[in-house]
Every structure is written in structure tokens, then in C-alpha cells.
């Protein structure tokens, strides 16, 4: 369904299990950034009522996920660490087209968002199927389903709002680019790392 070029090696979970506090902290900040992204889409596209309505739903869900991760951190006696840079997302951001019309920029921003959600969904699936901690396995399975919904929402809006972009062609370019950079990741206890 996601069409990603490269699957995450399940051995990545061994790295994650070596530092649960780090993956949970990183995950919490990923949820905060996802909520901020949805709010930014509202801010810059306030005239698109359907998009605004759905982005507000996604922002709320992402904040709920942040709360859930924070609750897990507290329950386990861990500490929410400082925000981390997400080098994977920063590389994807550089691939985003910034020229053309506002609508062209919106479509690429939506594809950028869909790409992040697709990889997050895939990583959560790997976690849910391979982590020994049963509570975290169920937690990540539930979140995987939510991420898949966000992925399809962003992709659907990119198709809806395009005027002159072949979205399927551009999405394939995103998939190819992501496939070329993901080989540098999967080596640390972070969601995208």
C-alpha cells in the first residue's frame, strides 16, 4: 500500500530496545512536529475549507498522540528529553519544490507530509511486529493505523488541489528520492533515524 522502495530492517528494533527512553522522546517530538505541520497547512491555506477542516482533525490527533507518548514516558518513570533534529525530515524538506504557484507549493507540501506519514507508518508496523515489549507493540500497532490514515489524507488532498502537476509522477519522484536517502537511516533509536 505504501509503495516505499526500501523496507526497514527488523533488526532496527534491537537498536530501539536498547534505549526506549530515546525512541519515546524522539517519537513525542515527531508528533509535535506533525501537529505543527498540520497547523501550518491551515495557516497558509485558510481559504481551502475542506483542507482546513481535515488538518484541524489531524493536528488534534497528533497532539493526542503526543499526550499518549508523554503519558507512556511518565508511566515508565522516564523523562521527555529535549527536542531533536530530524535529519531524515530535513533531507525530505530540501527535495520539496518551492517554486511555481501557491497551489504547486501546496501539492508538494502535501506530498512531503504524505511521505513522512508513510515512513512513520512503516516504522510503527516494524515496531509493532518485532518489539518484545507487549505494551509498546500494541501501542505502535494502533498508531500505525492512524499514520496510514494521515498518509492517504495528504495524498488525497495533493490529488484534489493540483492544477497542472501529474501527482502520480511527482509521487513516484518522492518515492525514489526517499528510497535514495533512507539507506542512511535505521541505525539509531529514533523514529526515522
TrEMBL record:
SUPFAM superfamilies xref list: Ferritin-like
InterPro entries with a match to the protein in the record: Ferritin-like, Ferritin-like_SF, tRNA-Hydrxlase_MiaE
Coiled-coil residue windows: none
GO molecular function, one term: tRNA 2-(methylsulfanyl)-N(6)-isopentenyladenosine(37) hydroxylase activity
Pfam families per the UniProt record, alphabetical: MiaE (PF06175)
Superkingdom of source: Bacteria
Biological processes annotated in GO: tRNA modification
Protein name per Swiss-Prot or TrEMBL: tRNA 2-methylthio-N6-isopentenyl adenosine(37) hydroxylase MiaE
Native source organism of the sequence: Flavobacterium hydrophilum
